[in-house]
Specification:
By secondary structure, the chain is α+β, with helices and mostly antiparallel strands. Helices cover 34% and strands 22% of the residues. Strands 1, 2, 6, 7, 8, 9 and 21 form a seven-stranded mixed β-sheet that branches. Strand 13 and strand 14 form a beta hairpin.
Length: 418
Amino acid sequence: MIYDVVVIGGGPSGLMAAISAAEMGSRTLLVEKGNKLGNKLAISGGGRCNVTNRLPQDELIKHIPGNGKFLYGPLSVFDNYDIIDFFENLGVALKEEDHGRMFPVSNSAKSVVNTLLNKLKELNVTIRIDTPVENITYDEKYHTVNLKSLEKIKTRSLVIAVGGKSVPHTGSTGDGYAWAKKAGHTITELYPTEVALTSEEDFIKNKALQGLSLRDVALSVLNENDKPIITHQMDMIFTHFGISGPAVLRCSQYAVKELMKGQTKVKMHLDARPDLSEEELLQEMTNLLDANPRKTVKNTLKGLVPERYLIFILERTAISDELKCGNLRKDALQNILYDIKHFKFFVNGSLSIEKAFVTGGGVATKEITPKTMGSKLTERLYFCGEILDIHGYTGGYNITSAFVTGRLAGTNAAYSAY
C-alpha cells in the first residue's frame, strides 16, 4: 500500500498533523517508535496538559524567544484561538488560569490525549506503535520510510514530527536530525533550554541554601560587562547542584548561550525584593530598626525576606545572631540592603539536554516555508514541533508552537499528496 501522508512521531505536533491530514481525506499513517501515543502531552502541565496560551499574538511570540517571529506566518493561518476552538469542538472544555494558560476543565491530560486518539480512530488513521524508523529515502515521486524491522513504507508526502532531544523517556531522542540532514537541511547547534543551572559557589557546595524557595524575585543573567541580558520576576529555588524553579528556567537559555560563547562561568543577579526600590527598602529597614533598638537584627528584619535567606545574608556581612538593632552600624545596614537587592553569584553550566524541558536548536527555520511548514529543499516533506529550531518558555508556548506547526504540516502534506 502507498500512503498519501505518513507522519512520524506521536507527540503533540504529530497527533495534530495526522488528524489534519486525515481531515483532508488523505490515507494517513501515524508511526510511533514508543508503545503509546501522546507521552509528552500526558506529562505536560504537571499531568494536567497546558494545551495552549490565550495571550494576544505579539505577547505570545514574546514568550517564544527561540525564533518565535517565524511563527507569525503559521499563526496567520491557524492560531492559539483556533487551538481552543479545535479542542472545544472535540468536546474538551477548557479553562483559563494565570498568565493566559489554558487547561482542560477535567484537569486531566489523559482526557486530552484520549480525545485526540478517538479523533484519529474516527478518521481511520492507521496507527503503528512500537515501530522504530531506521532512515528515510527521498524520491521525486514517493518517499520511503525504512523501518528497523526492514519493512519499507511508501508515501507521497511525509511529516517529520519526532521532537528534539529533551525528555527522552517520551521518545524524543534526536532521531529526526539525521533524516533532516539527509534531505539537505541544516541543523543549528542543539542546547538545553528551560533547564536548571549548576553552580560551584561555596554556598551551593556547603548546601547553605539547599531547598530554599524564594517567591517573586527578579533574577537576571549578566553579560561580561555586568549588564543584564534578561530579567525574569518569578519564583526560584536553591538546590544541591545550583538553582532551579520558574525564574531560573526562563533565564537558563541566556546563561547557556553565554557559556556556548566560551565563557567558563556566567554571573547572575538576584533581587529578593523587586517590589521595593532601594530607597523604600532602606526606609522600611530603618523604621524597623529604630522601633526595636533592643531586639536582635535577625528577629527584627526576618519579615523582609525568608528567615534562612536573611541568616545567610547576615553571615555574609559578619553580623552575629545576637546583635541588637541599636548597635547596627550604618555600613553594615548598607551591606544587608545591597545583598537583598543585588546578590551576585556565578553559574557554570546546566543540567544535560536530556534533563531540559525543551531543546534549543534544530532544523533551520529559514529552510522551511512558514505558511505550509514544507521543506524548501525537498518536495512533499514537512516538519513540525520541537525538531524545528523554535523554542519557548514553559506555560503553553511550546505546545502552541507544536499544534500550530502540526496543523499546517498535516494539512499541506495532504494537499501536496494529490
